[in-house]
Amino acid sequence: MSDIDNLRIAPWRLDTEEVLGEGALGIVYRGTWTRGNKTTWEEDVAIKLLKDPLLIDKAEAEVLRMSRLDHPNIVKCFGISFPNETPWIVMECMTGGDLLSYICNYAGGMPVDTMTQLAYGIALGMQYLHHTADQYHGDLAARNCLIGPNNTIKVGDFGKFDNDYEDSYFDWNHGQVCAKFLIYFSLVTIFTSL
Ligand SMILES: Nc1ncnc2c1ncn2[C@@H]1O[C@H](COP(=O)(O)OP(=O)(O)OP(=O)(O)O)[C@@H](O)[C@H]1O
Ligand SMILES: [Mg+2]
């Protein structure tokens, strides 16, 4: 059995409940995963239903990569399921939702010590990812950081999924600049050269 076969979850074990959010690649549901064999138990999970069946290979590679990571500040990926032609990715459910919405909806403005605690959690997750696991994220953004109980935070949703990392970088005077930051760097260059 290959590594990815071990991560396959039978569709009957998964139930989707309400929608938690939607992104470019899929719709995320809160759901339950029936685990175990003779004795079974239900675990709360988040399930991303991908929109595009062509993403199967990339989805499997991403699930394999994420499932090997184990850190308190990285969202746990449990596996992948194929109830129909588009894959479902099963991951830990983060009850506080994404950091972007959390900051925007925080009543009265977020205190500095809460911001510091969240930033520190993200930094620990990224340190583990880059230095211990020797992986890159590729799409670190507030919408991809997820909140748990007591302001715990975990980094999720790596960017390599829909976009080859190397392809998204340009050589800028022999330095590598990510495509998504090119507009920013271009504007800075224009304004500082005026
Ligand atoms: N593991 C999770 N636990 C709880 N909520 C989640 C989880 N993963 C995603 N969500 C919710 O679902 C929303 C959509 O996530 P998704 O990753 O599909 O889209 P996105 O990050 O907004 O955009 P992109 O398609 O660029 O990743 C998130 O903003 C978040 O609120
Ligand atoms: Mg995302």
Describe the structure.
It comes from Folsomia candida. The protein has 194 residues and is an alpha+beta fold. It has one domain (5-155): Transferase(Phosphotransferase), domain 1 (Orthogonal Bundle). It has five helices and ten strands; from the N terminus they run H-E-E-E-H-E-E-E-H-H-E-E-E-E-H. A five-stranded antiparallel β-sheet has the order 1-2-3-5-4, with helices on one face. The termini are far apart. The relative contact order is 0.13. The structure holds adenosine-5'-triphosphate and magnesium ion. The site of magnesium ion has 4 residues, from loops.
Short summary:
28% of the residues lie in helices and 29% in strands. It has 194 residues and is an alpha+beta fold.
Question: Helical stretch count?
Answer: 5
Characterize the overall form. Answer: globular
Unreliable stretches covering 5 or more consecutive residues: none
Share of helix, binned: 25-40%
- Biggest beta-sheet profile: 5 strands, antiparallel
> What structural category characterises the helix and strand content?
alpha+beta
Tally of extended strands? Answer: 10
CATH architecture descriptor text:
Orthogonal Bundle
CATH homologous superfamily placement? Transferase(Phosphotransferase) domain 1
Rg of Cα set: 18 Å
At the third CATH level, what is the topology name?
Transferase(Phosphotransferase), domain 1
Q: What key attributes describe this structure?
A:
single chain; 194 residues; alpha+beta; Transferase(Phosphotransferase), domain 1; three-stranded antiparallel β-sheet; globular; binds adenosine-5'-triphosphate; binds magnesium ion; Kinase-like_dom_sf; Tyrosine-protein kinase Fer; Ser-Thr/Tyr_kinase_cat_dom; Prot_kinase_dom
